[in-house]
Write a structure and sequence with these properties.
With 256 residues, the protein is of the alpha/beta class. The protein contains 8 helices and 14 strands. The strands form 2 sheets. A 7-stranded mixed β-sheet has the order 6-5-4-3-2-1-14. Helix 7 packs parallel to helix 8. The structure holds zinc ion (2 copies).
């Protein structure tokens, strides 16, 4: 499994893109910095997109991708829970902000949508996909993706603390976890459904107690203005846990 980090952050500027992961050039998780990272040809090779929740930084490039595919008489499979699909249909692809790509063209809509149920493993293209609820301000799932050769990764999406139930359901070799802000923002993070380095540390301690191991951890969704502090604190928790934890960046490649 080849994973490319197209977007690693929660804010967009010239040097940082909204969160977006590309697996084996065909499967996308969250559509932040998607179209701006891929050529038109690469966009047409995409087979499926998994969306974790409806926040703008995670769905932003869906309309742009749909327009590109529509103009090439192509289409794409998108998977999410029901609230995310409804939010896209109501607020974005509603015929007012942008065309209704979920319904049009009538014979073969540009977006073929499939609702997924958390806790139930489903086959998406070549991968076994498990959506697992996490703790955010609106309904959000993380995804475990397992390739045919048994390699697996879990991406937490946006989440606050309290992941024990989530950990019980997954056993990844690579964990892509969110850390949005440094420890001084802990009260805000708990309220907003996000993690700081110390909050992540506690979740990883719980993971190790439950599973008897720690996977390699890659951190995403950093606020770029606070990234230096996050990096310093992550280095220290990696030391404490004696386990590799690194910050993602745009263009980072991970191989399983
Ligand atoms: Zn969010
Ligand atoms: Zn986010």
């Amino acid at each position: 499994m080849d994973i490319k980090v197209l977007g690693a952050h929660n804010c967009e500027a010239k040097s940082s893109k909204f969160i977006c992961l590309l697996i084996d050039d065909s499967l996308v998780i969250d559509a932040g910095g998607l179209t701006s990272s891929l050529s038109l040809q690469a966009q047409q090779k995409l087979r499926a997109i998994l969306l974790t929740h409806q926040h703008y930084d995670h769905i932003r490039d869906i309309p742009a991708l749909a327009m590109n595919l529509f103009l090439h008489q192509s289409n794409i499979n998108i998977y999410s829970t029901l609230p995310v699909r409804d939010a896209l249909a109501t607020h974005l692809l509603n015929g007012e902000l942008y065309p209704k790509f979920l319904e049009q063209p009538q014979q073969k809509p540009t977006i073929k949508f499939t609702i997924i149920e958390p806790g139930k493993t489903e086959q998406v293209e070549d991968y076994a996909i498990l959506a697992v609820p996490v703790n955010h301000t609106n309904p959000t799932v993380g995804y475990q993706v397992t390739s045919p050769d048994g390699k697996s990764m879990f991406y937490t999406s946006d989440t606050g603390p309290g992941l024990t139930e989530c950990w019980e359901q997954v056993s990844p070799q690579l964990l892509i976890a969110e850390v949005t802000a440094p420890d001084e923002y802990q009260d805000w993070a708990v309220q907003a459904g996000h993690l700081t380095p110390s909050l992540l540390k506690q979740e990883l301690i719980n993971f190790r107690e439950l599973k008897g191991y720690l996977p390699r951890v890659v951190v995403v969704h950093m606020n770029p203005s606070l990234e230096k502090e996050i990096e310093t604190e992550i280095e220290s928790i990696a030391n404490d846990l004696n386990s590799p934890i690194t910050l993602a960046y745009e263009g980072m490649r991970l191989h399983l």
